[in-house]
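Severity: low
Component: inverse-folding endpoint
Summary: output formatting inconsistent between runs
Steps to reproduce: submit the following structure tokens with default settings.
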């Protein structure tokens, strides 16, 4: 994880840098270990107000937290708490997207019958979940396949999301 601290309008001491580093790294590892980079800006405004801004970047999300108090350490604590709330909310949202009601899960058995002398000898079984196309693409990116079969929550039809050769995505809508 890339970690940068910038101090504006004051000299950054090692103790402040260590405190911010330890506090932020702990929060990030606890709630979202996939964070790629964290940029922290510590500044002093009007000679007595300490402001902290944290920007954490994950592969598919960006988090921004800001806080101001009279004490720099308290400002770091306040901003880290705000960042933790955002990370926790994001983690819960991801978890909720993966929870699907039992009525929305279907089992698709794809049986491939190979003619004599054919090289096709594979059988796959997938759970078909009710998702939006965007969620299906996210699930496809998390899997080992270049396609993802799902029930579109917008239309109720079976769809196949797939990755095209030019690094874009396609959608096949199967209608009955």
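Observed output (run 2 of 3):
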């Amino acid at each position: 994880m890339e970690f940068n601290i910038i101090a504006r309008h004051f000299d950054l001491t090692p103790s402040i840098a260590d405190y911010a580093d330890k506090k932020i790294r702990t929060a990030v590892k606890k709630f979202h270990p996939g964070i790629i980079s964290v940029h922290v800006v510590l500044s002093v405004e009007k000679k007595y107000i300490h402001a902290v801004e944290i920007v954490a970047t994950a592969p598919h999300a960006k988090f921004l937290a800001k806080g101001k108090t009279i004490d720099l350490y308290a400002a770091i604590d306040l901003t880290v708490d705000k960042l933790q709330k955002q990370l926790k909310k994001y983690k819960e949202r991801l978890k909720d997207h993966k929870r699907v009601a039992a009525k929305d899960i279907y089992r698709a058995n794809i049986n491939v019958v190979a003619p004599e002398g054919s090289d096709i000898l594979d059988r796959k079984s997938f759970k078909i979940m009710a998702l939006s196309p965007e969620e299906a693409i996210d699930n496809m990116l998390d899997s080992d396949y270049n396609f993802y079969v799902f029930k579109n929550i917008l239309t109720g039809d079976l769809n196949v999301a797939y990755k095209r050769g030019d690094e874009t995505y396609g959608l096949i809508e199967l209608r009955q």
